[in-house]
Amino acid sequence: MNTLKGYLFIFLLFILNTYSPNLFAQEVAEGTTYTPAKLSQEPVNVTADLFPTNSMEVGDTTFTVYGDASIPFKIYFVNGPQYDNIFNPNPTGIILNNKEFNFFCSMEKSIRQNYSNVLEAKEFDYLGKKYLMLVSFREDCLGDNCRYRCYNVFDISSETSIRQTSFSSIFQGTDSFGDFNNDGKLDFVRVAPKAQKGHVAGEMVTNYLVTAYTLRRGMPRQLTDQGNTYYLYVKGDEEAYSFEVLQAYWFFNVKDANGADAEPTTYFAEYISFDPMYRYLYNPNGVRIEKNRWSVLITDVGDLESAQEQCQLVREYDIEDVYIMIDQYSGDITYQVFAGNFVSKESAVAYVKKLYQYGVKGQLTDFRNSY
């Protein structure tokens, strides 16, 4: 009898191995494909999907009312023949707890969006705080720009002190949010197309750069590790709902497309801090920073120590994002001190005005055309 049981057991193993090979293949492949939801330890808790409950006309203004929200709000749109979609767009925005907010599509919140068609409205809570999330198209929806979504997120934990955070991303949904660095504060990830080498112009880009930020009093701050930017470089579907990791420097070990641990790779190759051979942008500690387009040149000095001292002085003007770049092409080597590192010109102009209030005559600088 025991011999018969033994034969049956061996026969069962043979059947499983012959007709169910995928059981073992799935185990090997586990973790090689990611979604934004897998990047955070715990998802946010969606408490309400919000939809318009009413609309009304008051004078020349149309109001779309979201009466079922925990803090009811209205989206307004001003009508009139004097407005033009391009040259004089119709004013629009949101009235939340009797306070008016504009729509934006960038972290600097420098250029208001005049497009307020909401694709998704949700309330969620996380780590003891409550948030309202509104997602819409970008105003300049043309070509690849139509792939982006504009996020306007409001911290509504305190009705008397509502803070707004804005950013854009290819990915749409509340899985953009979570606590990625385990510090007990809400963070978000931004997904942006980043073409691979050899990409053919005109073809859709499905390689993406995923970066993480923390909500910091309405002004996001990118998450870094001793100067190294946390990021994922991935290949995914059209809307980045699913992707494979190609290169990474993340908060935990991630798997590559072959199921092996992706070797942590810093965003920049090894470099020498304050190397005069290259016009890199550094923070005062010598960590290389990726250049955006616009900044404000404050001064140039003859040595590094003086430049670092100038950075400290600028920080006393309530400006934390100060940088140093070395210029060796004007004769002698000089150390240039900059304030801000912006995508938009408007944000840099605001810094020029702010510095002028402290008696500092900053020079608006376009990195793309000047360096």
TrEMBL record:
Family matches, as InterPro entries: Integrin_alpha_N, SPOR-like_sf
GO molecular function: peptidoglycan binding
Cross-referenced SUPFAM superfamilies: Integrin alpha N-terminal domain, Sporulation related repeat
Keywords: Signal
Residues annotated as signal peptide: 1-25
Protein name as catalogued: SPOR domain-containing protein
Keyword S-adenosyl-L-methionine set for record: no
Organism of this sequence: Flammeovirga yaeyamensis
